[in-house]
Amino acid sequence: MNLIDAIAAQADYLTGVRRDLHAHPELAFEETRTADLVAGLLTEWGIPVHRGLGGTGVVGIVKNGDSPRAVGLRADMDALPIHETNQFPHASRHAGKMHACGHDGHTTMLLGAAQYLARQRDFDGTVYLIFQPAEEQGGGARVMMRDGLFEKFPMQAVFGLHNMPGIPAGTVALSPGAVLASNNEFRLTIHGKGGHAAMPHLAIDPIPVAGQIMQAYQTILTRNKKPLETAVVSITMLRAGDVPNVIPDSCEMQGSVRAYSAETLELIERRMGEIAEQSAAMFGARVDFEFRRNYPSTINHDKETAFAREVLLDLLPAEQVIAQTPIMAAEDFAFMLEEVPGCYAFIGNGDGDHRLPGHGAGPCMVHNPSYDFNDAILPLGASFLVRLAERWLARPGA
Question: Which of 295, 307, 318, 324 has a CA between 20 and 30 Å from the CA of residue 173?
Answer without folding.
Answer: 295
